[in-house]
Structure formats: structure tokens, C-alpha cells
Amino acid sequence: MPVDKTEFLRLYQQGKQDVEIARLLNCSREYIRKVRNSYGLPVQPKVKKLDRLSAADRQAIEQKLLSLLPIDQVAAEYGVSPDVLQEGFREVTRQALVKRKQARLVNISNYWQGRQVGMLTIQSVNQDSATSEYWVEGRCSCGRQKQITLNNLRSGRVFSCSKGGCMGLAKANALAYRQSLKELLAGEPRDPSTGRVSAVLSSALQETT
């Protein structure tokens, strides 16, 4: 869809980069690049300082960081390097990091709680504050409790309390249990940019919180 060339030039002269102009004019970055090239204009350099940011820009950046948008994405949008943005908004990025960790724990807990993994029913997920390791509390079908790390649960090596006859039953059914676990792992919500379990709750999980 054609954009207002006058508006494009106004935004360009303000020092805004292609990605920000595309967002403001509701079109693709590639289209803005073509418009810029048609005028023979160079790419706007990334700003090394935050001096040119208005009060409204600063407020918007804070809101976006606290809404858990990746800092690289926010930095690109405002034409600032991620390092400079992180330094200039140190307290906000620290708060965002804490919030992201909390959201990731909630996300993981909401997904796994109540799931059946082999003979274990997952009851809770907690995070070790010292190591950041996730720990799962499960109840075996025999009634015993089992505490293991989430990584061990995901590995497909633990399907029971590992006591008495439960270990033998788990080994006998390991193939079916692993297939079921594989399906659970495929369903975990993940951040496409990092491959890690997403810090932002999916709409499906939000309904269960």
C-alpha cells in the first residue's frame, strides 16, 4: 500500500530508521527501503546516544521493555544499539529481567502441572534461586513422591519414583512413555527467537492461570 511520501520524508529527517518508519506508517520494512532508495537516501546510522529520544520515546521504551519485548527489537525500533539502550535504561532492564524470569516460571509451571509423565503426575514446579534450576515435584502411581530436575524429566530417563517394582514397570513401558513425553515436549510454548520456553504466556495458558 503506497505511503504518504511527505510523511516518510518528515520521519526520515527526524532520524528514524526504516523499521520505525514502517511501524509508524503501517507498511513493510522492505517497502520503506524501496521508497528510501527511490529518493537516493542512505540508511540512517544507529544512534550512539539517547540524547535525541523524546520523553514520549523514553516512556514508550520503558513500557516495551517491561512488557518483555526483546531488547534487540526495541533498540532496532528506535535506532539505538542494544548496549546503549541497556545502559541508559539499566533499572528498567533489570526489572524486565526479573519479570521475565518470573513469567517463565509461571509459564513452565502452568504447562507441566497436572501432566502425566510415565507413572508420575506432576504436582508443582519450582526454581532454585541459587542455581536457577527448575525442580519438579511428582507423585508416582504407587503414591510415593518424586523430586527431580525439569531437565531430567525432559530427558526421558525418569518415569517413576524409581523404587521397588515401579522401576521395572517404567522400563517395561518406556517406549510408550517416551512417545507420550515427546508429544508433551513438542507442545511446550517456546520463544522463536531463542528456542527457550517463552516468558510470555500463550493465550491458551493464560486461561488456566
Report on this structure:
The protein is elongated and about 75 Å long. The protein has helices spanning 5-13, 18-25, 29-38, 55-66, 71-77, 82-88, 90-112, 150-155, 164-172, 174-187, 203-206, and strands spanning 116-117, 120-127, 134-140, 145-149. Strands 1-2-3-4 form a four-stranded antiparallel β-sheet. By secondary structure, it is an alpha+beta fold. Helix content is 52%, strand content 11%. Helix 2 crosses helix 3. It folds into three domains: 1-45, Arc Repressor Mutant, subunit A, CATH 1.10.10; 47-88, no CATH class; 104-206, no CATH class. Residues 201-209 have low confidence and may be disordered. The chain starts with a helix and ends with a helix. Strand 3 and strand 4 (145-149) form a beta hairpin. The protein contains eleven helices and four strands.
Q: What are the main properties of this structure?
A:
4 strands; 11 helices; 209 residues; alpha+beta; single chain; Arc Repressor Mutant, subunit A; four-stranded antiparallel β-sheet
Walk across the major sheet and give the strand order.
1-2-3-4
pLDDT averaged residue by residue: 84
Number of beta-strand segments: 4
Q: Supply the number of structural domains.
A: 3
Count the DSSP helices: 11
* Biggest beta-sheet profile: 4 strands, antiparallel
Low-confidence region ranges: 201-209
Query: How far apart are the termini?
Result: 40 Å
Rg over C-alpha atoms, rounded to the nearest angstrom: 24 Å
Coarse shape? elongated
Helix content: 40-55%
Order of helices and strands: HHHHHHHEEEEHHHH
SS-based class: alpha+beta
Q: How much of the polypeptide forms β-strand, as a percent range?
A: 5-15%
